Amino acid sequence: MNRMIGGTPPIILLPSANRQDGDAAFESNQAGQNMTTYSLPKEFSFSGKRVLVCGGGGSGIGSHVVDILSELGAEIHVFDLQEPTADVASYRSVDLSDPDAGMAAVEAIGQPFDVLINAQGLFKEGLAVQVVRTNFIGLRAVADKVLESMPAGGAVVSIATQLPPLPSDLSEMRKFIDLPHSEAIEYCETHPEEIGDGYGFSKFRLAVWSLDAALANAKRGIRVNLVYPGRTDSPLLNNFIRDDGPMARQRQASGHIELVSSVIGRIAHAREVAWPVVFLASDAASYITGARLPVEGGFLTAAELGRL
In terms of residue numbers, what domain contains 26? Predict the structure, then answer.
């Protein structure tokens, strides 16, 4: 693990300038070939910072976030149902669909945290209420608890999804966002048509909550940002395709899954999405809050310009 020694920034291996295009070059770089050694500026160091990775720390994008934060010297705590492979300060198996369990886990570890990464991503056809409980209601409970004592200079970064522009009137959406946990769960159970498959519903509300939290906490010196990943090689996508439910079959038949990665011509590696998450959590992004950073290979730009 690379940690700050005597104020010296950690030495990290980064891809050299002559990286080729495509998957093969990415994989060789990650194996340590064709690399150049750089000393990162102190703004990228997480030495002395306590970080909570809430959901996803044991797999997918979240696990790569944990790996990078470990390289940068963070004290990392993970809530997930899958144990991380990296060496972390603590790991707790937490069912984030239970808001009370998430808040109790925060209390058990002790606060404050300097950084919160919301990396949870659940999508299972036929389990819409569970998806909303896990992806939003449980995450919001943990985030609200962490924000109570987060110090100035703190940061929250949530991984959302590719979302359409926000509607001009968010009042109806905020009514759900502001519901107490038990009432929000009851609402999902009694409004199946509104929540749909649960995934878009939950991620949209996570995005709006994040933007509201960015403004509410700005003068406290706390930043709140979002990352919008595109099609990524991760368990979330792979399980969705493997489960072969009606929605998966429809999207594969329509070509939608291939379309979202058509600009660059390949899907993202999870570590390629993890680095922007870490950047937004770092002091290098100290003047960025309320941002929605797309990490999706140019798909949104191509769609906006009618180039798909």
Answer: 10-39
Higher-pLDDT residue of 235 and 272 is: 272
Taking the model in full, what pTM does it have?
0.82
* 4 inside domain: no
Q: Which two tokens stand for residue 108?
A: 């058990």
Q: How far is CA 150 from CA 18, 154, 155, in A?
A: 41, 6, 8
CB atoms within 10 A of CB 57: 33
Residue of 268, 259, 257 lying closest to 303 (CA atoms): 259
Residue 265 belongs to some domain of the structure: yes
Q: What is the pLDDT of residue 166?
A: 83
User: Buried b / exposed e across 61-83, counting CB within 10 Å, b at 16+?
Assistant: bbbbbbbbbbbbbbbbbbbbbbe
Distance of alpha carbon 4 from alpha carbon 90, whole angstroms: 20
Answer yes or no: do 34 and 91 share one domain.
Answer: no
Q: Report the number of distinct structural domains present in the chain.
A: 2
Q: What is the 3-state secondary structure (H, E, C) of 223-269?
A: EEEEEEECCEECHHHHHHHHHCCHHHHHHHHHCHHHHCCCCCCCCEE
Q: Among 68-77, 165-174, 227-236, where is mean pLDDT lowest?
A: 227-236
3-state helix vs strand vs coil in the chain, percent to 5: 45, 15, 40
DSSP 164-201: PPPPS--HHHHHHHTS-HHHHHHHHHH-HHHHTTSHHH
